[in-house]
């Protein structure tokens, strides 16, 4: 076997740098240059794809399958270096000599870049778009975040100023006074925070109706069609008796003697206990333990005689007692409106449905208002029953069946405080108006709902009464009347009947452990809690008088005196005949 000799070519060595040496430096340069392979470029122009120079993966086994020269699929022509030659200095030279290099340039790929299939990702591929468009988007996002942060901070500030344990100082002076003057000799027995009421639950059986007193007139359905554009003037009813007594109720005394129950109360008192966690203003109840009987009562001139206005609102009311928009003045105005509204929306035909007995404790010469007292008994445990006097205001025929109604009225005094103008929103946005009232008067609406549930009313009618002018608190108009089923409305306002009865049961159990005597339960004016004080047996007996006593003889502060004494001098024709 004959082997062919392998001749090693001479490789010149450049001592001055990279690349082949100049011909002047070494005489053997010409010999080395002759030994180099022909037509192999040592440098590349911008017309070549440098990434494909050493592509050993190209399949050249079938040269006949190569596409025609010049076609789009002919990529081998790009790497055809036959047009170049090595000059004497071993540099790359175009065969055309000194021709312009741009003449040899050709576009490698003229197709536009592929468009993205999903989303505007193209903007991130462009340097300009990558720095501009996302920046504008980030600015919008940051602006929205700043606005949301401002709104959240404002809501937190309002909440902390009005709903925490330290209420707003501007409201404390007027609305957050104690409803009763705590005397030094009173002994505090219990202090119950509202947080302990939240988890209470008690299930009661269906109550038993013991007696139905009084008489009811029919509801006038034409008031359901009242709109702000067809308003009606609120009338006054001075010749009807609105007085509601509790401790002097002859029926309750008779039931107590007959040993029909252990605990006695009214629906207004039970509703105040059931909705106590929603209350903001101070209120009080009188509790008397006589033998094995327990009586829940209210004193004359109590805040429960009036109706709270703007109680749960975030906006403060004026502090001056003489201001027509102060909490006390609005309470008097709301009681006056509520009493007259309940009598105006009745059919004026003189017909009245009478029940078992007349209303107890009615003065001679006074006409009874359209009201019925339903005395109902609930079983709290095996040896304890509760009797409550529940109030109904009217009756109506629904689906050929007689239904009982409760009638109440919300009053608008100034749209600047409520935030919603009833005359503009009631006709088109009733839901927004009601939601705003739930925010501003949540406790009052909850108590009305609880009273309707206790009385087993089929429907509760709520009237919307507004002042003729924001500065005129004597004249009012009825703008609308809405009706709700008590159970459905209780669900809308998140009023849990199990929790309501759980609160009552816990208070009753606590009071039944007390010894015989008189006690007062007071809602703290600035903290969400109630306190129970032991008071003398003759406390509150001389509070209600026709004329106010001198200041040095008064036990109660001036704002807690008789309702009739406070309305003297204001407007005799607008004074309520009694307090509901």
From TrEMBL:
InterPro entries reported for this sequence: eIF3d
Region feature (Disordered): 109-157, 543-580
Region (RNA gate): 303-317
GO cellular component: eukaryotic 43S preinitiation complex; eukaryotic 48S preinitiation complex; eukaryotic translation initiation factor 3 complex
Entry keywords, A to Z: Cytoplasm, Initiation factor, Protein biosynthesis, RNA-binding
Biased composition annotated in UniProt, kind: Basic and acidic residues: 135-157
Location (main, coarse): cytoplasm
Biased composition (Acidic residues): 543-554
Pfam families registered for this protein in UniProt: eIF-3_zeta (PF05091)
GO molecular function: mRNA cap binding; translation initiation factor activity
Protein location: Cytoplasm
Assembly notes: Component of the eukaryotic translation initiation factor 3 (eIF-3) complex.
Biological role: mRNA cap-binding component of the eukaryotic translation initiation factor 3 (eIF-3) complex, which is involved in protein synthesis of a specialized repertoire of mRNAs and, together with other initiation factors, stimulates binding of mRNA and methionyl-tRNAi to the 40S ribosome. The eIF-3 complex specifically targets and initiates translation of a subset of mRNAs involved in cell proliferation. In the eIF-3 complex, eif3d specifically recognizes and binds the 7-methylguanosine cap of a subset of mRNAs.
Free-text comment about domains: The RNA gate region regulates mRNA cap recognition to prevent promiscuous mRNA-binding before assembly of eif3d into the full eukaryotic translation initiation factor 3 (eIF-3) complex.
Entry similarity comment: Belongs to the eIF-3 subunit D family.
Protein name stated in the entry: Eukaryotic translation initiation factor 3 subunit D
Organism: Brassica carinata (Ethiopian mustard)
